[in-house]
Amino acid sequence: MYLGAQLPYSDDDLAFARQMGVTHVDVSPLDQLGLERGYWGVEALLRVREKVEQHGLILAAMHLPLTSAGIERQIWPDIMLGGPDRDRQIEYAARCVEAAGQAGITTLLYNLAILPVVRNPQRAPGRGGVTYSQFRYHDLSNSPHPNAPVSAEQAWERIAYFIERIIPVAEASGVRLGCHQHDPGMPEGVGYRGIERVLGSIEGVKQFIALSDSPFHGLNFCQGTISEMCTDPEQVYEAIRYFGGLGRIFWVHFRNIRGGFLDFCEVYPDEGDIDMVRAIRAYREAGYDGVLIPDHVPHSELDTPYNHRSHAFSYGYIRGLIDATEVMS
After folding, report:
1. How far apart are the C-alpha atoms of 168 and 99, rounded to whole Å?
2. Which residues 6+ apart lie within 8 Å of 94 measured at CB?
3. Cβ(315)–Cβ(5) below 8 Å
4. How many angstroms separate the CA atoms of 62 and 207, rounded?
5. pLDDT tens digits, residue range 92-114?
6. CA distance readout (Å), 186 to 100, 113, 164, 193, 236
7. Which residues contact 242 (CB under 8 A, 6 or more apart)?
8. Is the pLDDT of residue 143 over 70?
9. Residue 229 in contact with residue 182, Cβ under 8 Å?
């Protein structure tokens, strides 16, 4: 396994990652990749890769511009809205996949979501004065979204339409596509703001994987988001073994939470309800030998906007687990 990072594309941040022992990174400077014409350029990708490698790092993954920021900030909104321009936008996504393959970038990560990551505006207090992102479903305003309603059937049609067209391009390009889960899961049949979150349950993620038997169709497996779907930590270890055993985990957001379905906060990796030693052993048992990265770290007024302190702690924690379980395996 490898210690990885998703981080800003700057010399300072790349140097910081290398200093912390990171070897594999995910950087996606979307404003530098030629998107003004709609899709990435190969030469631009090669420049990004060269800069990353100059810092002694491996550009192991990038993010397609299908983000978790919500439909209002998508450059290809019709893919998940089922709008009149979705075929052209899927073609742009396909060109990005082809460019990544030509640039030697073999893993692309993406989201298929209308809603952004949903959290309460109030943060929870944590150790030493840090604050934690939190989610309490019953405290949220549930006013209709401008694009609501979106039923489960509509969401699945749009997701399947995209997968049917993009995965053959991924196969031909030698690029694995890892989709993030809907963060967080919402009550089935109710959703949030009139929109069903079909990738917000274990069964939904299984249904997503079943859309294609291609080994290039898989998951940006967010352990934190998976934990948010569950009512018992045992379900998290089972999910790791299930999806890992299928070979469909391409990248891991290795984070912890306190709580579970509809009520949780995101904490440091050593203080949540998931036993991270059991978790990393489950990945190993399932045959996963890829990258683990920290994700959604706590905030501190003493820290930088990127939360370098919390990231540094998380990098060291993950590195220790990788080394310790490698010795014990």
Report:
1. 15
2. 165, 166, 169
3. yes
4. 25
5. 999 999 999 999 999 999 999 99
6. 33, 13, 26, 10, 17
7. 206
8. yes
9. no
| Pair type for strands 291-293 and 2-6 | parallel
Q: Which tokens go with 181?
A: 């889960």
Determine contact, residues 324/285, Cβ cutoff 8 Å: no
Q: Are strands 249-253 and 256-260 parallel, antiparallel or unpaired?
A: unpaired
**Domains, the chain, with CATH or none:** 2-328 (3.20.20.150)
Helix, strand, coil fractions of the chain, as percent rounded to 5: 40, 15, 40
- The model carries a pTM of 0.97
Q: Which residue has the tokens 């009139």?
A: 194
C-alpha to C-alpha distance for 329 and 282, rounded to whole angstroms:
11
Model pLDDT for residues 193-237, shown as the tens digit of each residue: 999 999 999 999 999 999 999 999 999 999 999 999 999 999 999
Q: Which of 25, 55, 65, 28 is nearest to 44 (CA)?
A: 28
Provide the 3-class DSSP secondary structure of residue 46: helix
Structural element, H or E, at residue 320: helix 308-328
User: Which of 54, 7, 50 has the alpha carbon at shortest distance from 28?
Assistant: 7
Q: Are 74 and 29 in contact (CB under 8 A)?
A: no
Edge-to-edge strand ranges of the sheet holding 256-260: 134-136, 263-267, 256-260
Residue 93: closest CA among 152, 179, 182, 156: 179
Q: Which of 55, 50, 53 is nearest to 12 (CA)?
A: 55
Cβ-proximal residues to 323 (8 Å cutoff; 6+ apart), any chain: none
So what's the pLDDT on residue 141? 85
Question: Environment class of residue 46 by beta-carbon count within 10 Å: exposed (0-12), middle (13-18) or buried (19+)?
Answer: middle
Give the type of residue at 249. I
Residue in 233, 235, 229, 325 with CA at minimum distance from that of residue 277: 325
Helices (H) and strands (E) in the chain, counts: 10, 13
- Specify whether the CB–CB gap between 113 and 64 falls below 8 A: no
